[in-house]
Amino acid sequence: LGFLETCDRFHGAWPHWLNGATGKIVPFSPTDDGGDLVETSFMIQGLYTMRQYLDSTNTEEKTLIQRINTLASQVEYDWFTNGQNVLFWLWSPNNGYILRIEGYNETLITYILAASSKTHPVSAQLYHQGYARNGAIKNGNSYYGYVLPLGQPYGGPLFFTHYSFLGLDPRNLSDQYASYWQQNVNQSLINWAYCTANPKKYVGYGSDCWGLTASDNPWGYNAHSPTNDLGVITPSAAISSIPYTPEQSMNAIRHFYYLLGDKLWGEYGFYDAFDVTEGWWANSYIAIDQGPIVCMIENYRTQLLWNLFMSCPEIQAGLTKLGFSF
Questions:
Q1: Most CB within 10 Å of its CB: which of 50, 92, 240, 280?
Q2: pLDDT tens digits, residue range 203-218?
Q3: Those residues with Cβ within 8 angstroms of residue 284's Cβ, 6 or more apart along the chain or in another chain
Q4: Buried (b) or exposed (e) across 264-291, using 16+ Cβ within 10 A?
């Protein structure tokens, strides 16, 4: 908290990248040199979850609660609308507003937090017109026998089922567009079924070796998915889906550890990704891949983070405001 309080912020939003020693912004790209509302919303989701774990009758913990509330209250979600019926991903003092936040993707939590804000709230209209695009987020097609309520063909990268749902509990979550439990389970099963079918005949793919999401690869970094399949398996994809696909995810964990562990397991757990066809094995760990592994295993085991985050009165009010049942 002490670090976050001193970091560069832009209308309350932290940058995508920060210098871990100084807290100063490290531009993510030439134009991405300001506040990142989506990355900030992931942080606020975590801070709210932490806050709910703390005991307000304990003096020291009460102080932490107050500090978290201050940080959360300073995020100016309304600033990031640019006066339109949509949130913008970025705002930079040098480049202004960049990239409308439109679904369906990993940014659901951003709209929920924006609607939940006590200090800088946005209207429900932004969610329905901006994120849901007046219903255009709906899919409804079937892939490998699994109906996908929302999003792009075959579901996209699996982090769509992880980032917003580290705290946000999808089990009973639904609105006029979808059941989010069905969405996450079926996107995970489509990803698993695609890797099992392996239409591009990559080496190593199979029912126990699956998982396409954003990660390092032999050529840099990419958001891998069934429609952007480069032959790269990312352990975080299958493992972080364990609440949705427990059997398939456990089989993948055993495969990654017992059969590939000499190349895939290191000091901090599984390395980021691998491509058997190219003979490439990452030596990197990426926090946005490692973090969901830990969080989603805990949600599968005890539902701890889901229960904490969903106990937030602000979140309950925001979900109700947007028309969710939960």
A1: 240
A2: 999 999 999 999 999 9
A3: 216, 271, 272
A4: beeeebbbbbbbbbeeebbeeebebbbb
